Amino acid sequence: MKRGIGNYQIGDAFEGFVLIKESIKGTTSNGKPFLTLMLRDATGEIEAKLWDITGEDEAIFIQEQIIRITGEINQFRGKAQMRISSIRLAQTTDGVHVSDFIEKAPVEREELMEKLTEAIFEMKNPTIQRIVRAIIKKYQEPLLLYPAATKNHHEYVSGLAHHIVSMLKIARELCQLYPQVNKDLLYAGIILHDIGKLKELSGVISTTYTLEGKLLGHIPIMVEEIGQTARELKLEGEEVLILQHLVLSHHGKAEWGSPTPPLVREAELLHFIDLIDAKMNMLNRSLDKIKPGEFTERIFAMDNRAFYKPTFE
Fold first, then answer.
1. What's the CA angle centered on 268, arms 263 and 270, to 5 degrees?
2. How many CB atoms within 10 Å of residue 142?
3. Between the CA of residue 240 and those of 48, 83, 125, 167, 220, what are the distances in Å?
């Protein structure tokens, strides 16, 4: 793929292959069926409408299919949308594969694992270190593969590990500025806070929520995982309780998904580090798609704001 969908501008013509991330059937006001397709490649994604569909269209243009389309990038309600002119399924002779269309973290898995290992090695508290080491060993393979979310931030291959390692870098600097912070506790909270997403989310391609994810959510899942790991290792003490609190409170407020607010210094810091990294990931990726002097599309997770890219450096 020479040019990714994320690099196209409003008014550009498009011709090429994309992956269907999601396909939803709808009906127009006059009763005609259509499909809303979320299309993606390794550089981004875009919504498209396929009008006046047949039963065959509905059956073949489904999630995780590669298609070849021609069309034009239009704007609808402040967001880019593909107007499809022609569409067909990819064929074996086209030489394209699903892996070609999946966005990946800008850091190799080996480096991400190395940074995680370094952080665990620095821990001095044996209880905290043993719990974190055991959980990472148990979930290492999916941790290095899964995204951090279905959308908004780090929603790409190795996104979860990339998010954790980026947070660890922020924490390292803050621990130098605020030496009173318990580095073991903060590092452990960062590493563990989202690992419940390995059970909450379905995987890498067309990521959705699992039944366990819908009914429980990654926070309760991880709180139970920490408790179970501690029992298996025959570990007791306040460290286990505080680690569970860090995970339980890392969203900050009840309306944001945390059953309890941060009540420990390191829990408060974890919450803000999580916010910083998630927001910067969203902003950087949106700003990378536009030229200086332009505004990004409205970013729903950033209060639906559009951000301006200054013309000077």
1. 130
2. 17
3. 48, 53, 12, 21, 15
Higher-scoring residue by pLDDT: 231, 149: 231
Taking every pair of Cα atoms in the chain, the longest distance, rounded to a whole number of angstroms, is 67
| Residue count (the chain) | 313
Domains of the chain, each with CATH number or no CATH: 5-101 (2.40.50.140), 109-285 (no CATH)
Of residues 190 and 149, the one with the higher pLDDT is 190
What is each CA distance from 164 to 39, 49, 65, 152, 194, in whole angstroms?
A: 27, 36, 31, 16, 8
pLDDT score at 216:
95
Residue 45: name the closest of 90, 5, 87, 89 by CA: 5
Mean pLDDT confidence for 79-103: 89
Which tokens go with 225?
A: 């995982």
d(CA 145, CA 184) in angstroms, rounded, equals 25
**Amino acid present at 156:** Y
Residue 144 CA to residue 159 CA, distance in Å, equals 8
- Residues 106-121: tens digit of each pLDDT: 999 999 999 999 999 9
Mean predicted confidence (pLDDT) in 154-181: 96
Model confidence pLDDT, tens digit, residues 22-49: 899 999 988 899 999 999 888 888 999 9
Q: Between the CA of residue 137 and those of 15, 76, 131, what are the distances in Å?
A: 44, 46, 10
- Residue 213: count other Cβ atoms within 10 Å of its Cβ: 19
What are 303's two structure tokens? 């209060």
Residue whose token pair is 């995970």: 247
CA distance 245 to 258: 10
Give dist(CA 22, CA 38) in Å, integer. 5
Question: Percentage of residues in the chain with pLDDT exceeding 70?
Answer: 99
* Token digits of residue 170: 């922020």
Structure tokens at 280: 């910067």
